[in-house]
Amino acid sequence: MHLGPDFLYLSDEALDTMGIAPAEIADAVEAALIAKSEGRLHTTPKSAIIPGGGRYMMSTLAVGDEGLTVVKQVTVSPENPERGLPAINGAIMVLDAETGLLRAILGANWITAHRTAALSAVAARKLADPASETIAFVGCGVQADSHLMAFRDMFPLKRVLAVGRGAKNVQRFSSLAESMGFEVEAAEAEEVVRQADIIVSSITLDYTVTPFLDAHWLKPNAFAAITDLFIPWQPASVDAFGTVVVDDIEQERTAEKPMVPATAISGDLTDLVTGTVPERSFDKPAAFAFRGIALGDYAAAALVLQRAEACSAGQKITP
């Protein structure tokens, strides 16, 4: 129990130096999914506001049996890169679930990037072809970086294919992938989708984008991690998938704009981890389409806080 008044501050830069491996975050997410299925973790659906100007604001809330309440708020600001700022910014509050007192403030950017990739990794453990060698990225920003880092240790990947609207982003990401030892090629969308064993789509969340990806292009063994609300995928092509898993069915049911038709959904991530979703066949591609869930933020924040307190990382603030 935290009785205050001090609390810990961990910036994104501090989080990045802690050496937490992507697999550790994925393991924490899996444990949190099991805890939720057993009634030991409580979450609310993510709330979101689109106030105009291309901005997208979201928040999450979760309470777990480790005695923590985790609240996150982030804003996607597409004009931020022109200001020299990251496109996504925010903060996470970790409070004591018993006393309600503030226990830590964490930078939200690092956790958002890595918990998103961890959610994809948990799905990929069940749905992707273990022999996958070619991974494609539609969108070459932060999520491309974190997903490549997460997936490189999971699969025998050799080739990275990249698609992006900005040549600068594509070149930056391609250079990162090359530095990791991958064969890299920038190509057109249809070409990379047809070649990919795994594809990650992570474009800017903008509903004015005309869908340009057709799931019928995918190979039968392919797995798609769709982090961008299905925006770039042609809605009519969802029938190409044999298995579609979302992050949280309850959240999806309450969403103002569903990602995919309810009839196309095979289950959610909890169902997948607990074995309720049937094992996929490789005669049709599979997809994990997600909005981001409070559970992912909770799992990553709890892991980070535990590690930080064990190694005295971060800055203790005493009001």
How many helices does DSSP assign? Answer: 9
The number of domains: 2
The largest β sheet comes out as: 8 strands, mixed
CATH class of the largest domain: Alpha Beta
Radius of gyration, CA atoms, in whole angstroms: 19 Å
What is the terminal-to-terminal distance?
A: 19 Å
The general outline is: globular
Q: Secondary-structure element sequence?
A: EHHEEEEEEHEHEHEHEEEHEHEHE
Remind me, CATH topology of the largest domain? Rossmann fold
Task: Give a brief description.
The protein has 319 residues and is an alpha/beta fold. The chain is 32% helix and 26% strand. A hairpin with a 3-residue loop joins strand 4 and strand 5.
Question: Please, could you describe this protein's structure?
Answer:
The protein has two domains: 128 residues, ornithine cyclodeaminase, domain 1, CATH 3.30.1780.10; 165 residues, NAD(P)-binding Rossmann-like Domain (Rossmann fold, 3-Layer(aba) Sandwich), CATH 3.40.50.720. Helices cover 32% and strands 26% of the residues. The protein has nine helices and 16 strands. Strands 1, 2, 3, 4, 5, 6, 7 and 16 form an eight-stranded mixed β-sheet that branches. Strands 10-9-8-11-12-15-13-14 form an eight-stranded parallel β-sheet, with helices on both faces. It starts with 6 loop residues before the first strand and ends with a strand.
Task: Furnish the topology, listing elements before pairings.
Blueprint: E1 7-10, H1 12-16, H2 22-37, E2 41-43, E3 47-52, E4 55-64, E5 68-76, E6 88-96, E7 102-107, H3 108-127, E8 134-138, H4 142-151, E9 159-163, H5 167-179, E10 183-186, H6 189-195, E11 198-201, E12 223-226, E13 243-246, H7 249-254, E14 267-268, H8 269-274, E15 286-289, H9 294-311, E16 315-317
Helix pairs in contact: 2-3, 2-9, 3-4, 3-9
